[in-house]
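hey so i finally got around to running the thing on that chain from the lab meeting. sorry it took forever, my laptop kept dying and i had to restart like 3 times. anyway pasting the input first so we r on the same page abt which one it is
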Amino acid sequence: MTQTSSSPVRVGLAGLGRSGWFNHAVTLHALGGKYQLAAVTDPNPNRCREAAGKFGARIHGDFDALLGDPDVELVVVATPNRLHCEQALLALARGRHVVVEKPMAGDESQADQMIEASQREKRILTVFQNQRYMPAFKKVEEVIASGKLGRIAQIRICVHSFGRRWDWQTLKEFNGGELNNTGPHFLDQALMLFGAAEPEVFCHLDRTLTSGDAEDHVKVILRAPGAPLVEVEISKAAAYPQNLWTVWGTQGGLTGTARELSWKYVDFSKMPARPVERQPTTDRSYNSETYTWQEEKWQEPKDSPSTQTLFYEDLYKTLRQGAPLVIQPGQIRRQMALIHQCHKICAD
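ok and heres what got predicted. didnt touch it at all, straight out
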């Protein structure tokens, strides 16, 4: 296969379900100058024919046949969770670059195998953690990094909804459950904000409204000296959903959704010092003072590109222009270790 620095990346896509179709096939087709969906495979022949008709992709009967296509440079693994590691290893062994859907693997040992294969074969391996590009998350990072809120004491990420679910992703046999399906997006953000420290982990998993045997209610807390306390709640039993973001700082705080954020803060350098007074107040009152708040707001721009588009645009720069890989598999390996630890905690 002849490649140039400006030629489209030719993609073989495995899996044409919800994520494979909407997150990958549609996005890749829209980035036609940079990517070409060259080949697809899926157990459902109707989905394959639909992809051939809409995108001009060749149809292959199974994953091995897809890997045998000499025109495929990049393989996207968008198959059920339990197949991610196995298929990524096969694609890397056949000399293909690989994008694997979340979750990256079943645990950190599988992630290690995938990273080692990528290094051995000198091929790019990355994970579709597209919510790393969420505009609200980027703004939260920016506000925290500005120092306006002071030292960050606690961060809470709440992904709340109320509803029953009964598809295959609710089953443990397919590595289903909210921890594996929704968790990777928000645990990735949580670990980015938590920092490099090794966390002490609390985890609670529960089945509430799901028809399957995997959890649909998740609580994860990360704690370490010198790091903020970070909480992640993912629940299908939240009749009163809380904001996606809440941040507590020593000079102010932040709250908001995926579309709107508000934050306010105090400049204590312009206020009198408050050393401890050992004597009781003369009028038996609690301490009190007036704060002059600085308040700011943010709304997601209406023309924001999708997180899927931003992921693939950055990957194109890596594959064709030699730019550093943004979603590093080593970062996601840390997430796999966290998810594995959560499952172990809740199995005891």
